[in-house]
Automatic annotation (TrEMBL):
Domain Pectinesterase inhibitor: 43-193
Record keywords: Aspartyl esterase, Cell wall, Cell wall biogenesis/degradation, Disulfide bond, Glycoprotein, Hydrolase, Secreted, Signal
Full protein name: Pectinesterase
Lineage of the species this protein comes from: Eukaryota, Viridiplantae, Streptophyta, Embryophyta, Tracheophyta
Record's catalysed reaction(s): [(1->4)-alpha-D-galacturonosyl methyl ester](n) + n H2O = [(1->4)-alpha-D-galacturonosyl](n) + n methanol + n H(+)
Cross-referenced Pfam families: Pectinesterase (PF01095), PMEI (PF04043)
CDD domains, A to Z: PMEI-like_3
Amino acid sequence: MGKAPAIIGVCSVILVAMVVAVAVGVTRNHSESSEGGGNEPQASKKAVQAICQPTDYKEACENSLTGSNTTDPKELIRAGFKATIREIEKVVNNSGTIQDAAKDPMSRQALDNCKELMGYAIDDLTNSLNQLGAFDASRLDEYVENLKTWMGGSITYQQTCLDGFVNVSTEAGEKMRKLLNTSQMLTSNGLAMVSDIPKLISDLNITGLKKSDTEWAQRKLLAKDGFSPWVSFRQRMLLQKNLSQMKSNVVVTKDGSGKYNNINQALKEVPKKNVSPFVVYIKVGVYNEQVLVDKFMANVVFIGDGPTRTIITGRLNFADGTTTFKTSTVAVISPKFMAKNIGFKNTAGAIKHQAVALKVQSDQAIFHNCQMDGYQDTLYAHSHRQYYRDCTITGTIDFVFGNSASVYQNYKLIIRKPLDNQQCFATAQGRSDRRETSGFVLQNCTFSGAPDYLPVKARSKTYLGRPWKEYSRTIIMQSQLNDIVTPEGWMPWAGNFALDTLWYAEFNNRGPGAIQTNRVKWKGIKKITAAQAQQFTAGVFLRGAEWIQNSGVPYTAGMIPGV
């Protein structure tokens, strides 16, 4: 989300030393043989090569910066991000060339989705950066984590565009893949450069940013009242209350006693660029509507009367002609969304295949005491950072899927009866770049079967998950795995795809399904230590102290005691 200030602020500190060193070296080597500023192109070339060094697509990186003619790290970084944005804009502008190939309704929907998704990808490359402000050494880790999250989000949006063409028979998908090729490389390169910042600091031993200094700064992040210093006074007052005690901005009811009987109508009252929690109290009832919390509706809070009493329901599905991305009953795009005591349903049924109940693109989203009911693809945990606590989900195939960095604490996963020819998969995580910070962490969760599933569990086996994308990452720890979980534990997606590159781990689980004697022996299956498992707790993996701890929902930063 916004261009130069943040990326310049962070990178200037580490790149000035690197680029200036390169430039000075070049100048010294050629000072006696060159006159009149002839060194500048060579110095610029060296600076570009240095910045592109950690990337996987060096030629694309260097080509995107070739015309910069500068050694100024600020300008080089700006040029790199602008080049990526231009490439994505070019995809949108050229998407009309695919129109003729998109002859069937699903192809046309996928193409429309791509145009929307490219807008989100650009948002993650530009608008988010504006929120970072001027460089502050004490918040370096936070800056880097944000940048990695948003760069990963841009990668995910582009991949989601291509996913929309997977089950489409026309050549439109291949044409879109070619259009996106350069922008995908440049976005990956941007993530690589951002990910390399800690290493550069270490290698350059920059004064004032040694590990001890950043650790001290981390401890100083919270003010005396326990809140981060950038949290506004109004937000502090609201966050200090229990969510259920927050004063509602608007009330939605089915009986007409509130201002609205429709959730989407109530959301029209959310101010643009909203900076304070906007509470929508949704009273008991079943709300049959497709709800969209769009990207302009930040800080929205949904509070219901209970996950089985306040229910938002729909039945859009792939079988009846809607792309998976658009089947969700509720879609949340704007940042800092919260929901408590709400049920989300898609009632299309197993026969209709992909049918999403809840899709979450929101960064720093929180769900507490909620329920998600569906069959295939129930929860689309699409992108960015998400936290789920004391929730229940039902489903059959890939019913927790997407590419968010998300932690699920005290989560109940209930397997429903699938179609006769189907197996069940709890997760399908979609990390497509090895540097992305995304992954699913299920902590103190319970895997069990619904009453209609238990009689068929021998025929329709349940697996912990399968790798949707090449670097799929899922960690299950401190959880109860009942006997519905097959001894093999995990299932391939197709053949040998991703079996060497995925990252799956189980740690300190219990129950008959937790026995690992007969687990699959893929290269990507990890045996982790307690110290490694700690890295996937909410406090570390999501940096939860910065946005979950004071949210008003229960939160365990580390290992859950007593389990």
